[in-house]
């Protein structure tokens, strides 16, 4: 299938079969918002549950659900108010706004245009002779501006509190850290997960659910003591990965590196063992849920792409319709987030780490004479005292002189040294307060759903007729089983079909019951929405002695096998979990000709 065809076919199928479609179409629609239909909502929910099972349950992590609207100071502390921008260029003729970096990347060999400054982007647009995609007007000479992507709102009526819809779920975890650490018994390392909605006022949403203004993230914030906590790579060291390091991206003859997690960490390609651990876990998870590993890679961020606080960052990327799209990011965020909230917030964002044995240390301390500081500095006296304490910790030698020079809110202040009452004391300490570092795997659920649909979309020919089907993994398919009585006017067949459907639903399977049309048409309908198995109840299976049988058909191959009703649930449980293959079922039971 050629580039462009895959996306068009997928969008048509998604709308026709109820996976996703543009929202509010009765009112003309609005860009960047999509509604998931019955099939899409089930697929998305299954992907979320599969992620939760692997990254929360199996890893022993906590899970929270924080509000999607948070007050302005949260985003002042996080840096989103000042630095959460994309580059916008507006057409002088039609007034349409476009992302400058996307225009450049779509019309040149440059893959990292987002690293350009607005001035450099404007020059590049002029050099390339780019025009407005909407009306064709020349964009040369148009200024490129930074546009903040957050949705602003007001909390409460009247003189309300300004707030924002969260642009990522992570901030809800960081803000609640002082309470969450208590649930983790103040014991590092520990992880906190959250699956939920985030919002970004994208300049130019595109490629259906790949770039939207409302989307679902699944994020894990893993808190560690960088001096004491080491990642155990034993579970993932042999996992094979396809890496695209920054050095290879920048080289003229750069290429992928095929290696294992253990080797990549040992060789320094992945510079942080914790990142290596989560890349290994993600590689296995993506394969389990059905991503085509021949169209999957981990790409390291170039220096200009990384946030200033991130020492290393890798993206999981999938190839769809000829383009590589980011579906997850893995970043070592150091202590930036908790330090910022500790600076701006009114709570303790540290964790007390107890030493194996108490330590005796010399500690520089001050005991400022407030009777002197109060009359001299008035309301500023407390700030002066705090500045003295900070200086004593940072530079004890500063108290050797007769006077101590301080910077208090930008103002230079001098205090007599004897007023500070400086001394060095011997203290016994049981531990210390540290600000944990954070390792963050962040998954885009919507982009994962899109990838699964694109990678699962197949066409072939069955009985001389063209067939399109979704080869979705049984672990995430929206419907697990189709149940079909061969005819609907034979009571015995209908009764058995009803019983089979009820038993499967009671066992936790999503079942569709269909008695309409030819059996071939019923198969095609389920093939197209990715149902992995279909159960047909026919006269040959009515034994009359309680040993009834049915046929089970596998979606991709179209092969069928006759199976005892008593064995049906156990067989399907194994197939869904991946502990058994359909070839195993074929080997153990009577094969039926299609």
Structure description:
This protein is α+β, with helices and mostly antiparallel strands and 594 residues long. 33% of the residues lie in helices and 30% in strands. The chain contains 20 helices and 29 strands. The chain has a 9-stranded mixed beta sheet with strand order 3-10-11-21-16-15-14-12-13. Strands 25-24-26-27-28-29 form a 6-stranded mixed beta sheet, sandwiched between helices. The model has no long low-confidence stretch (mean pLDDT 93).
Which keywords apply here?
alpha+beta, globular, 594 residues, 30% strand, nine-stranded mixed β-sheet, 20 helices, six-stranded mixed β-sheet
Structural class: alpha+beta
- Provide mean pLDDT, rounded: 93
Question: How many β-strands, per DSSP?
Answer: 29
Strand percentage lies at 25-35%
Ends distance: 28 Å
What fraction, in percent, of the residue positions are helical?
25-40%
Task: Report the sheet with the most strands, covering strand number, pairing sense and barrel closure.
Answer: 9 strands, mixed
Q: Gyration radius, to the nearest Å?
A: 30 Å
Numbering strands along the chain, what is their spatial order in the largest sheet?
3-10-11-21-16-15-14-12-13
What general outline do the C-alpha atoms trace? globular
Indicate the low-confidence ranges by residue numbers.
none
**SS element count, helices:** 20
Q: Would you summarize the structure shown here?
A:
This protein has 594 residues and is an alpha+beta fold. Helix content is 33%, strand content 30%. A hairpin with a 5-residue loop joins strand 8 and strand 9.
